[in-house]
Write a structure and sequence with these properties.
This protein is α/β, with parallel strands linked by helices and 408 residues long. The chain has two domains: 10-65 and 315-407, Aspartate Aminotransferase, domain 1, CATH 3.90.1150.10; 67-313, Aspartate Aminotransferase, domain 2, CATH 3.40.640.10. 36% of the residues lie in helices and 17% in strands. It contains 14 helices and 15 strands. The chain has helices at residues 12-22, 55-58, 67-77, 92-103, 114-133, 154-158, 163-166, 184-190, 216-227, 279-282, 298-313, 316-332, 361-369, 392-407, and strands at residues 34-38, 41-44, 49-52, 107-111, 141-145, 176-179, 195-200, 230-234, 258-261, 273-277, 339-345, 348-353, 372-373, 375-377, 381-384. The strands form three sheets. It has a seven-stranded mixed beta sheet with strand order 4-10-9-8-7-5-6, with helices on both faces. A four-stranded mixed beta sheet has the order 1-2-3-13. The protein has a four-stranded antiparallel beta sheet with strand order 11-12-15-14, with helices on one face. A hairpin with a 3-residue loop joins strand 14 and strand 15. Helix 4 packs parallel to helix 11 (298-313). The two termini are 20 Å apart. Bound molecules: pyridoxal-5'-phosphate.
């Protein structure tokens, strides 16, 4: 792994200066400017190589620039890229087939970004509530959780518990009720005759890889069945192999009513998201109820098919399970004055530091100097989520770097 020589004249500085001057300041990235990537590695404009342990928040589970996914992109780009849903295209049906085979759900609604797929699920749940459950007009409620992250639209940030995501952006739509994550009793108490759905991440990613008590989803399933409420699982970050199963809900042996996918659905190549459900829910949508100009376009569909195929055919999910177990085993032996807790599943690992450690960012900066890219989440958690194509040798290099900076 390349180590960083601070004496070298740097092209990075000029890129950083231009972005700072011309761009909106809605992010605070680590000071690295990537110009090329392959597999688990990215290279910056000064030619330094890093092992990417963020994987674009699990959008590049399949590794950067996977040759089969980029080939699908190139081939489809030369045929047809967009006709809008005013016409059919010859790629979308194939994506429907692959997704329904993989999940067992009978219907797919394609969108582009994760937030749009969540919005789609919210609309489906509400309309199901009015037309199937008989909830009074405009009274439908959805139960959500403290610490949730489902995207950045105004409706979604309106039910966030994170003050910064909300402050200055109201007013927000009504109809959401928030309860503590992991607390099934609080969920049961929050349900009324107007509740149409629960919206949950099986593991909360942005909140700091927060794992609920074992069996939590199963308890939610029981409550939803009893109360006739839809269980909607946001697997945008937890799904598609990240936790060592294709979908994180499989660990609990449950099946949700609505599945929301994004991020790795297109392997980081092109934005594709989807909401999946059976006909009883999905058929609430009539022509004209919902849509998106780019949603379901043939370029995105071809890319997503390739992204799903390589996940399965190249055994990336099994690799995540095996190497995840190895990583947890090594991290359990880590002796560090800074570490409060190590948690997660598969290749999705949160290392929570004590408040006195001075924040996770300085450790991420030290890791960057050692050629490992991690991103802190919620100030005190180092998030480790490499592409699922990582080898045991590469993972061991990462773990050694982490042990070194955390021991100091
Ligand atoms: C990233 C993420 C989203 C939002 O996806 P975007 O593509 O950024 O809109 C929603 N839910 C979860 C769990 C996510 O991790």
């Amino acid at each position: 792994m390349a180590s960083r020589d601070t004496e070298t004249p740097s092209r990075t500085a000029a890129f950083l200066e231009r972005e700072e001057r011309l761009g909106a300041h809605n992010y605070h990235p680590l000071p690295i400017v990537v110009s090329r990537a392959q597999g688990v590695y990215v290279w910056d404009v000064d030619g330094r190589r890093y092992l990417d342990c963020l994987a674009a928040y699990s959008a590049v589970n399949q590794g950067h620039c996977h040759p089969r996914i980029t080939a699908a992109l190139r081939e489809q780009a030369e045929r047809v890229t967009l006709v809008s849903r005013a016409f059919h295209n010859d790629q979308l049906g194939h994506l429907y087939e692959v997704l329904t085979d993989m999940t067992g759900f009978s219907r797919v609604l394609p969108m582009n970004t994760g937030a749009e797929a969540v919005e789609t699920a919210i609309k489906a749940a509400r309309k199901w509530g009015y037309t199937r459950k008989g909830i009074d007009r405009d009274r439908a409620e959805i139960v959500v959780f403290d610490g949730n992250f489902h995207g950045r639209t105004t409706a979604i940030v309106g039910f966030s518990s994170e003050p910064q995501y909300r402050d200055g952006f109201g007013p927000f739509p009504a109809g959401f009720r928030r309860v503590p994550f992991g607390d099934a009793t609080a969920v049961a108490a929050a349900i009324t005759k107007s509740t149409c759905a629960l919206l949950v991440e099986p593991i909360q990613g942005e909140a700091g890889i927060v794992v609920p008590p074992a069996g939590f989803l199963r308890e939610l399933r029981t409550i939803c069945d009893r109360e006739r409420v839809l269980l909607m699982v946001d697997e945008i970050q937890s799904g598609l192999g990240r936790t060592g199963r294709m979908f994180c809900y499989e660990h609990d042996g449950v099946r949700p009513d609505v599945l929301i996918l994004g991020k790795a659905l297109s392997g980081g190549v092109y934005p594709v998201s989807a909401m999946l459900a059976d006909a009883a829910v999905m058929d609430v949508f009539r022509p004209g109820d919902h849509g998106s100009t780019y949603g379901g376009n043939p370029l995105g569909a071809a890319v997503a098919v390739a992204a799903l195929q390589v996940l399965v055919e190249e055994h990336m999910v099994e690799n995540a399970a095996a190497l995840g177990a190895h990583a947890f085993e090594r991290l359990a032996r880590l002796r560090s004055p800074h570490v409060k807790e190590v948690r997660g599943k598969g290749l999705w690992i949160g290392i929570e530091l004590h408040a006195r450690a001075g924040g996770a960012r300085r450790f991420c900066e030290q890791l960057m100097l050692r050629g490992v890219l991690c991103k802190e989440t919620h100030e005190h958690v180092i998030r480790l989520a490499p592409p699922l194509v990582i080898t045991r040798e590469q993972l061991d290099e990462v773990l050694t770097a982490i042990e070194t900076v955390l021991r100091a």
